[in-house]
Write a structure and sequence with these properties.
It contains 21 helices and 21 strands. The protein is an alpha+beta fold. A hairpin with a 6-residue loop joins strand 7 and strand 8.
Length: 673
C-alpha cells in the first residue's frame, strides 16, 4: 500500500476492492490424502461410511481428556491454552482399521515406504529440494482430533515452483503428516462437553504443500489450487473423492493481518471467500479507528508493519478498563419469557447471563447483505463466533433486540437492571453456567479486539447444508505459534541417499500433457479422451487394450469403472469374435462379473440366451424383406423411416447387433430414394 493514504473500497461491493492497492497477500496450503495404508501403524487406509446413528455397537470406545503440553521452548501454545478452557472430554471409537498405535498405547512405526515415495515424487514434480535428513516433529493439537494431543509431521522438501496460469507460485514447504480423527458428534452436558471421534481416518498419510504468498488475486488463488490438485493427481497415487483433499487459504491485506481460512472444499468458492475476507479486514480496520477516535486514542496506521507495540499495548490497557468482565445473572428477568430458545435452556438447568459492553451500542451491527447477497462484516458475528467456540449455540446482543421471542419489555428490563445508558450495549447468553461464563468471556476478549486491526487467527468457512452458506467465515481458534512444534523421539530420522533420489527422478509420472498426447494417437473422440483422463483410466486403457477397437474399449472401460479390466477386455473380445451382440455386452458383464469364466463359457451362455449376433447374410435378408414389405412408408418418410423399421428388424432378428442393423437399414432405404 503506497504512502499514508487510507485504504479504498466499498465493503458492500467487493468488486471495488483492488488487491494491489490494498496490499493483498495470499498463499495456499493443500492437504492431500495418499492412497496407501496408515503412515505410522501399517493399518489399512480404509474409511467407513458411518455416522453417530449407524455406528456399530461392537466397535470399542475409549474416553480421554487432553492436557496441553509445553513446547520445546518451554511455552504452551496460545491455541492450546484456549482449547484447554473448553472443558471437553473425548470418546474414541475404534474402527476395524485402528489399533494400539491409534489409541497412543504403543509407539509408532517408521514412515510407510509408499507414502514417503509419493512425497518425494511430488517434491520432484514441483522441483523442490528434499532434505538429506528428515526429522519427524510433533505439532500440538488439543481439539481432541488426535489421541496423542499432537500430529506427527515431517518436512520433506523446500523451495519448489508451481507453474500456474497468471503467474508461477513458489512452494515454501512440502510435509508428510498424519490425518486427524473424524468427528461424529458433540454432546453438551451441564458440567462439560463430550466429543465423539471415529479413528478410521486417524493416521492416514497426508501431503501438506504450502505456497509462498505469491498469489496476486482471488482468481489467481483458484488457479493455484487447481494446479496443485492436478499435480497431486498426476501421481495416480492419491485418494479421490469428497474430503480427500483440503485447501486452506492464508489471506491478509496491509491494514489487516494474516488469517488462515479452512473449509475451502469447493474450488469455485475460493475467489468469493477471499474477497469477503478482504472486505472483513477492511471493515474492522475502519471500525477500530472509529472506536479509537471516540476514546481519543491514536489511530491505526494503514499498514500493520508500521504498528508501534508500545502504543498498541497502551490502547489495549485503556480498552480493558473500559470493557471489564462485568457478567450478571439475569435469569429471573426471563422466567416468563416466551422465547423457545430461552425457556428450553432455563428449564434444563441453564442460566441467562448478561455482559455489559460500555459504549458499543450501535457498533455491534445487524444483518445486512452486500451486493452479491453475502452477509456484510459486523462485530456481532465475530462476538457470536467467539461465543460458539465455548460450545453454545449463540448469543443475543442489544443491537439486534427485540428479536427471537425476546420482546422490548425484556430489553428494557435488562437495561434497567444493569443501569445502562443509551451508549451501552449488552450480550445475553443462555446455557449451563460454566459454559455461558466462558462464552461471554470469549466474546468480551473478541470485543476488546475491535479497537485493534483484525487478529491473526484460524477461521472456518460457514457451511450450511453441506455447502458454503455465502462465502463468509467465523473464528475458529488463535493462529498457532512456534511453541506448537517439538521433536518426535519415537520415530527414527529418514536419510535420503543420492541413489534413492535419483530413482525418484528417473521414475516421475507422466504429466497431463503427455497423457493427452498419448491418447491423441488413438481412434477415439476428444470427449472420450478427456473422460479417460478425468477418470484416470488411461493407464488401464493402454495396458489391456491389445487389438481391441479404441472407441469400444474406452466406452466399456468407463461404463464399468471398478470392474476387473482383464474381464472387461475378454468380454469385448467375445463380442469382436462374433459370440455376443453389441447390445448383449452389459448382460454378459452382469452375468459373469462375480464368477469364474472363460471365453468359451461366455460364448456358450450368450448363444443359449439369445445374445449371439444374427448371421450377417441372414440379417441382410431380414432387413431387405422388412424394407420391401413397407416400401410405401419408406418412400413417404425417407430416412425418417429408420426408427420404426429398426424396431421391426430387431424383433425378427433376435440377438442382432444394433449398429450393424442400422448400417444395413440405411443402405436399403437409400436404394429406394
Amino acid at each position: 500500500m503506497a504512502g499514508n493514504s487510507e485504504p479504498q473500497g466499498d465493503v458492500s461491493d467487493t468488486s471495488t476492492l483492488d488487491p494491489e492497492s490494498l496490499g493483498f497477500m495470499c498463499g495456499i496450503e493443500v492437504h492431500q490424502q495418499l492412497a496407501t495404508g496408515k503412515l505410522h501403524s501399517r493399518q489399512k487406509g480404509e474409511l467407513y461410511d458411518v455416522s453417530i446413528d449407524t455406528l456399530p455397537e461392537d466397535w470399542p470406545r475409549y474416553s480421554r481428556r487432553l492436557t496441553p503440553a509445553r513446547g520445546e521452548g518451554g511455552k504452551i501454545d496460545v491455541a492450546a491454552k484456549f482449547e484447554a478452557k473448553r472443558n471437553r472430554s473425548f470418546v474414541y471409537v475404534m474402527s476395524p482399521n485402528s489399533g494400539l498405535i491409534e489409541l497412543d498405547e504403543r509407539p509408532p512405526l517408521p514412515h510407510d515406504k509408499d507414502a514417503m515415495d509419493i512425497s518425494l515424487t511430488v517434491s520432484a514434480m514441483l522441483n523442490a529440494k528434499p532434505l538429506d535428513l528428515m526429522q519427524t516433529m510433533r505439532k500440538t493439537v488439543v481439539d481432541g482430533s488426535n489421541t496423542t494431543g499432537f500430529q506427527r509431521t515431517t518436512l520433506i522438501s523446500r523451495d519448489g515452483i508451481l507453474e500456474v496460469e497468471g503467474g508461477d507460485v513458489r512452494i515454501d514447504v512440502l510435509c508428510l503428516e498424519e490425518d486427524s480423527a473424524r468427528k461424529l458428534d458433540t454432546i453438551t452436558r451441564q458440567e462439560s462437553v463430550e466429543v465423539i471421534y471415529n479413528l478410521d481416518r486417524l493416521g492416514l498419510p497426508l501431503i501438506e504443500i504450502a505456497t509462498a504468498p505469491d498469489i496476486k488475486s482471488p482468481d489467481h488463488a483458484k488457479d493455484t489450487a487447481i494446479a496443485l490438485g492436478r499435480t497431486l493427481r498426476d501421481t495416480r497415487r492419491v485418494r479421490r473423492g469428497l474430503g480427500s483433499i483440503r485447501q486452506d487459504l492464508n489471506v491478509s491485506i496491509a491494514c489487516g493481518d494474516r488469517v488462515e481460512i479452512k473449509g475451502c472444499q469447493d474450488l469455485s468458492w475460493i475467489p468469493r471467500i477471499i474477497e469477503l475476507e478482504m472486505a472483513r479486514q477492511l471493515h474492522f480496520y475502519r471500525l477500530a479507528n472509529e472506536l479509537r477516535s471516540e476514546m481519543g486514542l491514536p489511530i491505526l496506521p494503514n499498514n500493520r508493519d508500521d504498528d508501534d507495540s508500545e502504543i498498541e499495548q497502551n490502547v489495549a490497557q485503556e480498552v480493558s478498563k473500559k470493557l471489564s468482565l462485568n457478567i450478571n445473572d439475569v435469569s429471573d428477568l426471563f422466567s416468563s419469557c416466551e422465547s423457545k430458545m430461552v425457556t428450553s435452556s432455563l428449564d434444563s438447568g441453564g442460566v441467562m447471563l448478561a455482559l455489559v459492553l460500555p459504549g458499543l451500542a450501535g457498533k455491534i451491527g445487524t444483518k445486512v447483505l452486500d451486493s452479491q447477497g453475502s452477509q456484510m462484516p459486523r462485530l456481532g458475528r465475530e462476538l457470536a463466533g467467539a461465543a460458539k467456540l465455548a460450545g453454545v449455540k449463540g448469543i443475543f446482543h442489544s443491537d439486534e433486540l427485540p428479536a427471537y421471542g425476546i420482546t422490548q419489555d425484556y430489553v428494557d428490563s435488562v437495561r434497567e437492571n444493569l443501569s445502562l445508558n443509551k451508549q451501552d450495549a449488552f450480550l445475553l447468553c443462555c446455557a449451563p453456567k460454566w459454559q455461558a461464563e466462558l462464552a461471554l468471556e470469549s466474546s468480551l476478549n473478541r470485543a476488546r479486539m475491535a479497537w485493534h486491526r483484525s487478529p491473526k487467527e484460524v477461521r472456518n468457512v460457514v457451511i450450511k447444508k453441506g455447502a458454503p452458506e455465502d462465502g463468509t467465515t467465523s473464528p475458529m481458534r488463535p493462529l498457532p505459534g512456534g511453541a506448537r512444534m517439538y521433536p518426535e523421539t519415537d520415530i527414527p530420522n529418514f536419510e535420503l541417499t543420492d541413489s534413492k533420489w535419483k530413482k525418484v527422478l528417473d521414475n516421475l509420472p507422466m504429466s497431463q500433457a503427455e497423457r493427452k498426447s498419448r491418447l491423441g494417437s488413438e481412434e477415439m473422440s476428444e470427449d472420450q479422451a478427456k473422460q479417460l483422463l478425468s477418470k484416470q483410466l488411461d493407464d488401464l486403457y493402454f495396458e489391456f487394450k491389445a487389438d481391441l477397437p479404441a472407441k469400444a474399449w474406452a466406452s466399456i472401460l468407463m461404463d464399468n469403472e471398478g470392474q476387473n479390466p482383464q474381464f472387461l477386455a475378454d468380454v469385448l473380445q467375445t463380442k469382436e469374435q462374433g459370440f455376443v451382440s453389441r447390445d448383449g455386452i452389459n448382460t454378459l458383464i452382469a452375468e459373469f462379473s462375480n464368477k469364474p469364466y472363460s471365453m468359451e463359457s461366455m460364448a456358450a451362455w450368450a448363444e443359449e440366451n439369445g445374445l449371439k449376433p444374427a448371421d450377417a447374410s441372414d440379417l441382410e435378408s431380414v432387413v431387405k424383406s422388412v424394407v420391401e414389405s413397407r416400401l410405401d412408408f419408406v418412400k413417404e418418410r425417407g430416412m425418417g423411416a429408420m426408427g420404426p423399421l429398426m424396431g421391426l428388424v430387431m424383433k425378427e432378428a433376435k440377438g442382432a447387433d444394433g449398429k450393424q442393423v442400422s448400417d444395413l437399414l440405411r443402405k436399403q432405404i437409400m436404394k429406394h430414394q
